[in-house]
Amino acid sequence: KRLALDYYYAPASTPSRGPMMTARALGIELNLKSVDLVKQEQLKPEFLALNHQHTLPTLVDGSFVLWESKAIIGYLVSKYGKDDDALYPREPCKRALVDRLLYFDMSLHQHFRDWAFPAMKQGLPPCPEALVKFQTYLGHLDTHLRLQGTRFVTSDTICVADQTLACATTTYRELGVSMISHPHIVSWLQRCEADMPGYADICLEGANIMAQCFKEILTVK
Amino acid sequence: SLLTARQLDLDINLKHVDLLKSEQFLPAFLAINPEHTVPTIVDGDLALWESRAVSGYFVNKYCKGDWLYPEEAKPRARVDRMLMFDMGTLYIRFTKYVLPVVFKGSKPDPEAKKSLLEALMWFDTFLENSTYSAGSTITIADHSLAASVETIKQSKISIARYRNIKAWLQLCQDNMPGYEENV
């Protein structure tokens, strides 16, 4: 579907990719507008006028401006999805589990940042202690998948939490983060690669952009 | 999530988990929540954690009408945006400023403080044309944010200069049942 949805994003940004996966699954086309963070384009007056918190991604749907990737995801399904879309079910218990995992994704990525950003942004050596904390969080996801026992994170059907977590964990994997202790994440990612629309050109491609820039910096010598 | 429960007049069976005694690592609790985080609720077969997911669940399951967490796309998106702002920007910047001081005895980091004050400034600006954080009525975003801002205040960070936050916090205090005991 061709709608007038402007999507401001950064290609290397992991949180930017989740809503793109959701849009793809819903069959809607986003008008992609790349914002160069290195050139600080997010601080340009035109962008600040849209979003004075100057974060990415940002969605513009007519006069409605929205940021926070998970709010965008919820909005896309709510507005453009089926009445009770399996991507983000309405039944309270099912929805609660998806929500729990969306918030988990946020914490997981924060732990990734705590480990990776000092190296990526300030040229400091990667901190082993921060890596341990991050790996512990990945362990929580692996445990969840094992206990849940379904093909995807909440059921045998793909939901929006699969989309965001697949983008994140694929990035980590391509950056060289060891998945040796997380066999359930490995096999779930294989299923995502096989079944998730947009995995190759959104998820994996974005992860590779990150890897090209930062894999070497993050490799512990 | 306790504020949401009180707003909905839900009967909650409170079970205190003493983190200083590492009670979150007791086998009985790990069996419920392998991530050993609080708060965690058990409602029949459902075990749920992540406070904002819990608040959403309370409304989705038990609220007659959707006034605390609208069903409609745009108003819901505004609430979601503020829930994410609370978790991913405001509260995280607070923890990065305060936790090293409290747990490692580090000196307060001026950059971390600057970052927190920036988040407060953003929040103050969001409230410029909005009575509550996501519109003209209380939502679960206000429950979440009120708890965060009160915690920030407790660590001696003044919100006096944030006119809109001050006014909003007073509204929360006046309109949220159980405010004093839960924040």
From TrEMBL, chain A:
The keyword Zinc does not apply. InterPro entries: Glutathione-S-Trfase_C-like, Glutathione-S-Trfase_C_sf, Glutathione_S-Trfase, Glutathione_S-Trfase_N, GST_C, Thioredoxin-like_sf. Residues 3-84 form the GST N-terminal domain. Keywords: Transferase. The keyword Membrane does not apply. It comes from the Eukaryota. PROSITE patterns: GST_CTER (PS50405), GST_NTER (PS50404). One of its GO terms (molecular function) is glutathione transferase activity. Residues 91-217 form the GST C-terminal domain. GO terms for biological process: glutathione metabolic process. Pfam families: GST_C, GST_N. Homodimer. Belongs to the GST superfamily. This is Glutathione S-transferase 1-like. It comes from Hirondellea gigas.
From TrEMBL, chain B:
It holds the Pfam family GST_N. SUPFAM superfamilies: GST C-terminal domain-like, Thioredoxin-like. This is Glutathione S-transferase D1-like. GO terms for biological process: glutathione metabolic process. It comes from Hirondellea gigas. It comes from the Eukaryota. Residues 1-66 form the GST N-terminal domain. One of its GO terms (molecular function) is glutathione transferase activity. Belongs to the GST superfamily. The keyword tRNA-binding does not apply. Keywords: Transferase. Residues 72-183 form the GST C-terminal domain. The keyword Transferase applies. InterPro entries: Glutathione-S-Trfase_C-like (IPR010987), Glutathione-S-Trfase_C_sf (IPR036282), Glutathione_S-Trfase (IPR040079), Glutathione_S-Trfase_N (IPR004045), GST_C (IPR004046), Thioredoxin-like_sf (IPR036249).
